[in-house]
Design brief:
The protein contains 29 helices and two strands. It has about 600 residues and is mainly α. A two-stranded antiparallel sheet has the order 1-2. Helix 6 (about 150-155) packs across helix 7, helix 7 packs parallel to helix 9 and helix 20 (about 405-410) packs parallel to helix 23. The longest helix is centred in the C-terminal third of the chain and has 27 residues, at about 575-600. The protein is globular and about 85 Å long.
């Protein structure tokens, strides 16, 4: 590239002397991550334009590419000037990201054990033993086939050798009966969860899926497998593995199942963990040496994040690809399946996974399958055999035992400040101008985490019903009103609560008057989700009056409280956010008006 020039115009700054596309060292064009892009405001001065342009360009270029830097040049003054510009660009980028503040902080779900480092708490690739941990008892038969003890130990410990001898697409000497199959499937599943080698992980994953497809022996994915891996990652047990929490908020569902005539325990009980995990958790003479019990494998952040992400993708891929081998539901008792969906959404909110588009896509796919896996009777009426309402035109209508409400109750009760305070990954403040959490003692989740969780729900028919209900509960959380949980949610549920429409709650009014534009933006988005984006189903003639009422009493009232946009100071963080909010309100109001006019 040519010599760096201090151009005053942003367009000139982006031009290249050679006209060639910027490529990485391996010749591939570097693509942008959508979350790495930021939108900069306009400035009246050319100097501000130049700095903003440099910031945007620096955001777009990969870190390893030198911007207009000639490595063969000996001009120290020029190189110093370039370094200074890069430093300024990096500072501007951080400042803009902070000002826009559009990325959820996530929760810190996985606890650090040793010196603030994450890692594997109970097992890793080296400590997993097919024979000791999974009762694989085929060594004697293998000796009869001509294998030596040393060779058998090598095959069973080296994953590459193990998969090569396993031959999942054909018959293998390693696998003979149901016990062998179950031991090998468990061994592969847990090995995949702690594998940091991407190629070896893909090989084991393929073997895992091929075994499941090609053999008729029974092996189903259960909550036991999910919890075992998450606890090994160091997940906060109060957040995902609390019997008391699930018993409290699944009580009504368990009662409905019992009233339907199905035999079920009085209280929900979490599944027992595998024996090899139990002995590591409890300890004792029978559990082996203290070194085995206390073993903790420290992982560098990159490898740990890789394992968590690959594990989530494995869960969702298996759910969608092997639906006949899931053990989450027995007739009308879907407690395990509801917990599985809850766990997926909570783990996907972890700070390590929250910005990974592959995880988001996988979670959305998994949720889509599981929501659609319920029968129509279960989705609308649940296990209730008596209360099965219908609409005036004869279609099924929701009752209080439906699937959607059962899941929403769990998700809405995830209050990190109350249930698992050590997962909080943000600063909790009392000042309404800067607060990000709500309810008594600010124990709720971060409002941006709420929005992120809503974004993971698939845009399907049932997904939209779930998203509206969850947005309705989150809106009540921010408004700090008494919770109302109807059978399902539409625009009429908002206008029936005065604190959300005609007489806004003190909590909402304080947020608006304190100019907490971040939270106001979230509030507007929650209203928009509940109203809906489908012109045919969400803007019917009977809903027009209610939508216009919300627009007048909520959105237009917020607009009146915003500062004059003609006097925006782009150097002020709050002014920039106010400008964003004003533009977003214009978009939402314009869309609502357009759809309402078409139906009028």
């Amino acid at each position: 590239m040519g010599e760096y020039q201090e151009d005053s115009d942003f367009n000139d700054l982006l031009d290249s002397d050679s006209g060639d596309d910027v490529q990485s060292e391996d010749g591939r064009v570097d693509l942008l991550d959508i979350e790495d892009l930021t939108i900069t405001g306009t400035s009246s001065s050319s100097k501000s334009k130049m700095l903003e342009g440099i910031s945007l360009l620096d955001e777009m270029l990969p870190p390893e590419i030198e911007m207009d830097d000639d490595p063969e040049s000996d001009d120290e003054e020029k190189n110093a000037r370039i370094a200074q510009k890069k430093q300024e660009a990096a500072e501007n980028r951080k400042k803009l990201q902070k000002m826009l503040h559009t990325v959820a902080p996530g929760i810190d779900l996985f606890r650090t054990i040793v010196d603030g480092e994450n890692g594997f708490k109970y097992f890793n690739m080296e400590t997993l033993d097919l024979e000791k941990d999974f009762d694989y008892a085929r060594r004697g038969k293998l000796l009869g086939h001509g294998f030596s003890n040393e060779r058998i130990s090598e095959v069973l410990s080296d994953r590459l050798e193990f998969v090569r001898h396993l031959m999942p697409e054909a018959q293998s000497v390693l696998l003979c009966d149901q016990a062998d199959f179950r031991a090998i499937m468990n061994f592969l599943f847990y090995s995949i969860s702690v594998c940091t080698d991407s190629k070896l992980g893909e090989l084991m994953t393929k073997a895992f899926f091929d075994l499941r497809k090609n053999y008729g022996f029974k092996w189903n994915l259960t909550l036991k497998h999910v919890f075992c891996c998450l606890l090994n990652f160091g997940a906060d047990e109060a957040a995902i593995f609390s019997n008391r929490f699930y018993q409290k908020f699944l009580e009504k569902h368990i009662d409905a199942v019992r009233n339907s005539g199905q035999k079920v325990s009085k209280k929900y009980e979490l599944p027992d963990l595998p024996f090899f995990i139990k002995k590591r958790r409890v300890g004792g003479d029978s559990a082996g040496s203290s070194e085995d019990l206390q073993q903790f494998t420290v992982m560098n952040p990159g490898n740990f994040k890789f394992c968590v992400e690959k594990f989530l993708i494995l869960l969702t891929d298996f759910s969608a690809g092997q639906p006949g081998h899931l053990e989450f539901r027995y007739r009308d008792n879907w407690s395990d399946q509801i917990i599985f969906l809850y766990v997926l959404l909570i783990v996907a909110s972890d700070k390590r996974a929250i910005r990974n588009y592959k995880v988001r896509e996988a979670i959305m796919t998994g949720l889509h399958y599981h929501l659609d896996s319920f029968s129509s009777v279960q989705w609308y009426w649940g296990p209730d055999k008596e209360n099965q309402p219908k609409t005036t035109d004869g279609f099924k209508d929701f009752n209080h035992a439906n699937v959607c409400k059962s899941l929403i109750i769990l998700l809405n009760e995830f209050f990190p400040g109350e249930n698992c305070p050590e997962t909080i990954n943000w600063e909790v403040v009392e000042d309404h101008s800067f607060k990000v959490t709500f309810r008594k003692n600010n124990t709720s989740d971060h409002h941006l985490n709420m929005l992120h969780r809503l974004s993971l729900v698939p845009p399907s028919y049932r997904g939209n019903q779930l998203r509206k209900y969850l947005a309705f509960m989150y809106l009540q959380t921010i408004a700090e009103t008494v919770y109302v949980s109807p059978t399902h949610v539409d625009v009429f549920d908002i206008i029936e609560i005065p604190e959300l429409c005609d007489e806004l709650s003190p909590g909402l009014r304080l947020i608006v008057k304190a100019k907490n534009y971040d939270v106001i933006m979230t509030i507007v988005e929650l209203y928009d989700i509940i109203i809906g984006h489908e012109p045919v189903t969400d803007f019917t003639a009977d809903k027009i009056e209610a939508i216009q009422r919300i627009q007048k009493n909520v959105l237009q009232w917020i607009q009146k409280k915003l500062p004059n946009m003609n006097r925006i100071n782009i150097d002020d963080q709050r002014s920039i956010k106010g400008m964003q909010l004003s533009e977003y309100l214009d978009i939402v109001c314009g869309r609502w008006q357009t759809h309402c006019q078409r139906r009028a």
